[in-house]
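Good morning,

Both structures are done.
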Amino acid sequence: MKAIVITRPGGPEVLAPEERPIPEPGPGEIRVRVRASALNRADLLQRRGSYPAPPGAPADIPGMEYAGEVDAVGEGAGLWAVGNRVMGIVGGGGHAEYVVVHEREGIRIPHDLDWEHAAAIPEAFLTSYDALFRQLDLKMGERLLIHAVGSGVGTAALQLARAAGAMTIGTSRTPEKLKRAEELGLEVGIDTTREDLAEAVNQATYGSGVHAVMDLVGGKLLEASLRVLAVQGRAIVVGTTAGSKVEIDLGLLLRRRVHLFGTVLRSRPLEEKIALAREFSSVVLPLLSSERIRPVVDSVFSFKDIRKAHERMESNATFGKIVLTW
């Protein structure tokens, strides 16, 4: 099979297609013929040598999600039949023509979705659903602040929060991204290059603050986010593109009884990933099937143009997901 391989740590130029053996499914597993995948910040970090794959995942083949059709089933696997269309997340290896996953990790692709839009779902929507509802316990009527609202995870979180009846406030450093996010239901957009976060949030909430923060950026924005949380507010850190170290006033956490979470899907145990996939299939898949929410595709690249896709992501000009097809 063809696979995109990281030949050594470095820039996009270190990515190259190579031939690798087609993996065989074991007991309870399925093999998926990948038709499309998507690009994530983690793939860039892995390429640079700063985010190694978890145990059990290929060390040199990136890719954390896939969309394709079942090609073979292992012994005892009976959830899917050959030819079924499935999508899901993996610890690595998604940028190859075939992946092997546990059958219960697979998620049915809605009938009307093409491969490109299906590939834009798994990482963004699973991450968002898990962070917002399984950890932050977001409720109808609550106010949610989303940093980097124009990212793949940000656009997914925005739509899921709106579907749940939450008020949404989003940040970006690009006015055009905020305008496009408004088309997805964003109620208040904050340009962090021009506006003070605390002042803008206080104005939007009449000084009441937000109940929850989904931070896809990290760095100094985290400390600023804690200051706009209401009493007993919750914040979750999903990404650290602006830095992984920040100084926090612990007194602020104590006085407001703030709950601070951190999350990552990639390295979780198989049992947790299966539980999330099954719950997601029950709760979120109907919203996707009815088009109440939809994946947002920034651009589509052939895998032979993988270097250009990485360059596109590093430009920070994207809105939604970069999708890759074979």
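Second structure follows.
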Amino acid sequence: MSGAARLLNRLPAGLPVGDGWVQVAERAEVRFPYDGTPVAAAPVGDVATATAALDAAVAVRDRVGRLPSHVRRRALLEASDVLAAAGEDLVELLVLETGKPRVDCRVEVERTLLTLRTAAEEVARLHGETVPLDLLPSGEGLIGFWVRKPVGVVVGIAGFNYPLLLAAHKVAPALAAGCPVVVKPAPQTPLATLLLVHAVREALAAAGGPPSAVQLVTGGPDVGRTLTTDRRVGAVSFTGSAAVGHRIARDAAPTKVLLELGSNSALVVAADADLDAAADAVVRGGYYASGQACISVQRVLVVEAVREEFLRRLADRVAGVVVGDPRDPATRVSALIDPAATARVQAWVRDAVAAGATLVHGGRVGPDGVLAPAVLLDVPDGVAAWDEEVFGPVVAVRSVPDLDAALAAVNASRYGLHASVFTSSLESALRAVDELEVGGVVVNEVPGFRSDVMPYGGVKDSGTGREGPRFAIEELTVTRMAVIRPTPRSS
């Protein structure tokens, strides 16, 4: 029996709803994106299942909000220990479920463990402050302080590309904040998330908390609508496309909505950049996870003076990218999540060429169905491969006259998640930090760099709110002000 199968055999039948697991009528095959072979039959929920999960979450909302800090902390730490012990088996399951190269799935597991542990430690830092109310005469004699209170039931919806990690960024901060959470994974990738939720529920019950504080419901758009439009929900946290995120925000109003949406992240190569480092970064940052990452390198803006030398170095490196079976440790680009995604990315490459761009590498599907990493030159504005999020192994390179033009081009996008600048000038680096309209500016490293302890999120159409346990906990709590006059005034 494979490691992935051993893990799945640990799961009870059905879906983790309420304090137990409820049986569902429907199951759907999860298939290995590389060759289409079945991985497992996953339970599929429906509107009734979603409603039952919300009912259970509301029923324990007050109890979860009052759980002692040591219970929440212990549950997260013990769940992390359980997943860490499953290490390589969990990596194998992610490879089969997502089709991502093994190296990327190993990083996903490591980052998931860090997210759980960091959220556990943030429980100890969930506190308020005193307020000097006597700054005005009317406040004399008053004592003021504020505390943080849980926002209530949280609905977390995650994407398919990093299912375990994205779910951890919903579950761990919610539980740390004292909020019941209902998770909905992507239909293509529910398996690792089921294991995560099972581990947290088991650890929570052992620590003295209710398992129904953490639940999972699978299903289609009708399940998502049920979860996000219920007025008993305190906050919705969504990771996915901009179009879906915007619709959720409209439909869920006035419920608080946190959106981690798409991007077309840019990397700027200044005239004084280390060109070897920049070329390495484009390949490393453009093709990891087969390009299915919202902060992968998509747009490369190269100052004209170094364009030809940069392109020469880039070509040498792209030619060395290993393409194929994601189970092979050497593979860096493999199959996209499904054939429809591959066909769409191919079509975007063809459209870019038809609009005047030059395809200088890749962009074609091999006999194994894997799209070879592509490099496009001089993609014009108004073309999807430049304007939108490709979510595939495609990098578009454009030359600009100077750094001013490069920064302006980065900002001339409806997205603003991460961007990076390669330069040896401290002045240029600080200009980028000051001027780029993005959630994160990375200097001399890939825009896809993300530490799970930092504030992470975008501006413009890339989203609202911030992830990272400390910052997500702040988003999932509300301040409650206390104003006390120890001795009532008689007049």
